[in-house]
Amino acid sequence: MKDLLRTSTSLSEGIEQILNLQAKIESDASNKYLAMAAWLDRNGFVNTAEYLYKQAEEEREHFLKVFKYITDMGGIAITPSVPEVQQEFASFREVFDIALQNEIAVTKAINKVIAKCRAENDYATEDFMMWYVAEQREEEKNARRALELFELINENEATGKFALDVQIAKIG
Ligand SMILES: [Fe+2]
Ligand SMILES: [Fe+2]
């Protein structure tokens, strides 16, 4: 039965599996940003919260894009489970330390998908994944910019936190 199914798709089982993993990673990223947005919101950083709510939606789009690609290619897209995500953060800055680390991890995961595409001569999926390569370049840059602002604006000065909230929100 499995072999029969495979005749209707050019995706190998390995590629289908790694794409489903990437879908889950994007879905997790969406939930992580949502929790960060909520934390910012309840701590008074309303502008940055808005930015990360949008970021959460973008990650949801990234998730759906892979998810639909799998089905479009005749594969089986698996709805990812929703794990617990970090809800509390030590500081405003910690949110962005974690955000950058998450984005770097996503970039590495995307590179793995592409490496597998190359190993299996799956040019269609490699071509599809290139959109994510460009997207990650932007996402990493934005997360780094946020951390840069923490260096430029003194968080501990009277209006420092407010200035940071306004400036970080402008990145997106
Ligand atoms: Fe993403
Ligand atoms: Fe991202």
Automatic annotation (TrEMBL):
Per its UniProt record, what InterPro entries does this chain match?
A: Ferritin, Ferritin-like, Ferritin-like_diiron, Ferritin-like_SF, Ferritin_DPS_dom, Ferritin_prok
Q: Where does it live in the cell?
A: Cytoplasm
Name all Ferritin-like diiron domain ranges: 9-154
UniProt xrefs under SUPFAM superfamilies: Ferritin-like
Q: What's the Enzyme Commission number for this chain?
A: 1.16.3.2
Superkingdom of the organism of origin: Bacteria
Q: Which GO terms describe its biological process?
A: intracellular iron ion homeostasis; iron ion transport
Q: Which GO terms describe its molecular function?
A: ferric iron binding; ferrous iron binding; identical protein binding; oxidoreductase activity
The residues that the entry says bind Fe cation are: E26, E59, H62, E103, Q136
Q: Which GO terms describe its cellular component?
A: cytoplasm
Its keywords, alphabetically, are: Cytoplasm, Iron, Iron storage, Metal-binding, Oxidoreductase
Return the broad EC class.
Answer: oxidoreductase
The record's catalysed reaction(s) read:
4 Fe(2+) + O2 + 6 H2O = 4 iron(III) oxide-hydroxide + 12 H(+)
Q: What does this protein do?
A: Iron-storage protein. May alleviate iron toxicity in the presence of oxygen.
Family statement drawn from the similarity comment of this UniProt entry: Belongs to the ferritin family. Prokaryotic subfamily.
Q: What is this protein called?
A: Ferritin
Q: Which organism is it from?
A: Flavobacterium flevense
Specify the taxonomic lineage. Answer: Bacteria, Pseudomonadati, Bacteroidota, Flavobacteriia, Flavobacteriales
By which gene is this protein encoded? ftnA
